[in-house]
Design brief:
282 residues, mainly beta, four-stranded mixed sheet, rod-shaped
């Protein structure tokens, strides 16, 4: 503002108004001429300082449990982040839009913001430890369809079917690159060994004892008996199902033959006279 209302003006930038508005660094001068034709001049240096450059970078992503460090640069400036922090860098672990105002030593300010997304990790639950019997299988399912999988046995499918005792673990990685793991113990119990032996024979009036072994197990014989051993006296095929404490079962069977005894009849008592004879035929 050159003052002297009503005078005429000539500024160094060619303006002829009493006041000018400038936004570039320079030396600005003005010649003021009043109604009497008298003149005076003055000049002033205007410095337009550059604002600090603030670049928080592209939007960023991480997974639950991870963190992201945001750096506003411009060491030595003062900072005010949208979360209230006043340091040059902040470390964040929750989703949100984070902005910062950076003010340099000249009092010039600039701002920038960045979106931070913290993705949840996949939930992996293989369930409680599992058991089966020899000959059986267990299917383990890592869930999270469409993810990628790496099992401890090298498989890369969502489900695996196993039949051996072991600890099985899986790492599941979802489309965001976030991972989680779980493991489960699988126990495959051996089945009981049931051996009723070779086929057996006896004679009418005799008995045969069949023993399924495996003391302490539960038993179901083909004749309905539920004891470890049975005594039989009739011909037939006898089988047993033995179930141990783990719920594992096995079976065996045996043929028993009970032969009839021969029929021997020497007839009624006989008599003869001295000098005679009697023939007995068995």
């Amino acid at each position: 503002d050159a003052g002297n209302a009503g005078a005429s003006y000539l500024w160094s930038n060619g303006a002829t108004s009493q006041t000018i508005t400038v936004n570039t660094s320079d030396n600005y001068s003005v010649v003021v001429t009043d109604a009497n034709g008298c003149s005076a001049t003055d000049d002033v240096n205007v410095t337009v300082l550059p604002n600090p450059t603030v670049d928080l970078g592209l939007d960023q992503e991480t997974c639950e449990g991870g963190s992201i460090t945001l750096d506003a640069g411009n060491a030595g400036a003062s900072y005010l982040w949208s979360n209230g922090a006043t340091s040059q860098t902040i470390t964040v672990n929750t989703s949100g839009n984070y902005s910062v105002v950076v003010t340099d030593a000249n009092g010039c300010s600039a701002t920038d913001d960045v979106n931070v997304t913290v993705h949840p990790n996949p939930v992996v639950d293989l369930g409680t430890d599992q058991e089966t019997c020899a000959g059986g299988t267990i299917t383990l399912d890592a869930g999270n369809a469409g993810s990628t999988y790496l099992w401890s046995n090298g498989a890369t499918t969502q489900t695996i079917t196993v039949n051996t005792s072991d600890n099985y673990s899986v790492v599941v990685t979802d489309a965001n690159g976030c991972s989680a793991t779980d493991d489960v113990n699988v126990t495959v119990h051996p089945n009981p060994v049931v051996d009723l032996g070779t086929d057996q024979e006896t004679c009418a009036g005799g008995t045969i004892i069949l023993d399924a072994g495996n003391a302490g197990a539960t038993y179901l014989w083909s004749n309905g008996a539920t004891t470890q051993s049975i005594t039989v006296s009739t011909s037939g095929n006898y089988s047993v199902v033995v179930t141990d404490g783990n719920g594992c079962s096995a079976t065996d069977n045996i043929n028993v033959s009970v032969h009839p005894n021969p029929i021997v009849d020497l007839g009624t008592d006989q008599e003869t006279c001295e000098g005679g004879s009697i023939t007995l035929d068995a």
